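[Primary structure, fold]
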Amino acid sequence: MLRQLAISCFVAILALPAVARTRPHYGGTLRVEVEGDPWQRPGGLARRLVLDGLTTISSDGTVRPALAVDWKSENDDHRWQFQLRSSVHFHDGTPMNSANVVASLTAICGAGCPWKAVHAVGATVVFTADSPLPDLPALLGGDEYRLALIGAGNAASTPGGIGTGPFQLTGSSNGAVTLTANENCWQGRPFLDAVEIHTNRSIRDQWLDLSVGHADLVDVPVEQMRQAHEQRLNVVASPPVSLLALTASDSGVLANPNLRASISLAVDRGALFNVIFQKQGEITASLLPAELTGYSFLFNAERDLNKAHEMRGGANQLPLTLSAEGGAAMQLAAQRIALNLRDAGFTVQIVAAGVPRHIDLALRRVTIEANQPQPAMEGVLRASGLAIPVLEQTPAGMYKVEREILDTHRIIPLLYLPRAYAVSGRVRDLQLGTDGAPLLAGVSLEDAP
């Protein structure tokens, strides 16, 4: 027994230097490069560092306090009251209160909010709705509802707004955004002194900068994950956290539900998975992954071209317009889908996203932010332009709701896709959120002073 104790003590003593070496250091600047806009909503890296929400979603899917410390529902979830955290200030020193929280929420979604009204009542924010909102705390933990100070030109003069987050904007020029640590952050000071985000960088340039030590964290598109591994990049990847889906209009040519059903049957999900996205992620015909619901296998993802012809019928339709939101891989996926639909007898014209004209089909990649089935499904539907409340919570009830939605073929799930990044060897403690985004507020640098 004494010998075992002595050995244990010796091992513990040997481990002390290793622990000291791996303990997080304060200081240093993290250099990040991205293809897109770090302020984009949802998912922009700068937004996540500068702005907070009333709640946040932990890695296990639990809704936790953020700018709100407590909440309760009344009247069968038609009314919610959120108690705000005290002594929180925006980066310019303005105290956070219920009035500026209400102003921010109203600016975010206006008349299109999931709730009917939101009011400031003392140190609380009160939401009311015509329909039950059982998942409102989880909804408010999503990226869309991060809060910025509104008024006095703040939202207009500062990209992304003035927030309460662990970092604040201190510089923006020549495609580079500089964020510095918020010394008075309610969450505590972050380890990093600063984060520099260089925008509009091609993947080739990002990977080159990472290899020569000029960058610490860069994008790895899903379709290039295999190539990144072959180049021996240190890749950090999430599970499948976004849904690739077609949304179909229910007006114009596609007012006919049989045509929408034909489109769903004609798409070759296997070709998208194998060719475009290089076997990353999962093929699906369900809105949510199996680990959230347990029943996604009940939806048939097989292509059936004969049935697609049968559902379309023999009539000649007007050309369909198809748009794709995103980069080169999304455009290639749209072209592949157009070929699939032509095999079924449709004429398809691919148009640029955002063109002011009627769009019959839109290819979207929707992030699954929540880690619980009900709010996750509502979030996917809302991001897809289908504001359909999901009131069921049991697996059987959720399956019934999803079956009814998918049987309209207004949304056609195709693939679940992960998110991935490559990091330098000096980065420590990088974790990914439930939506696959890097949680940079908890990162430290090995060589920090």
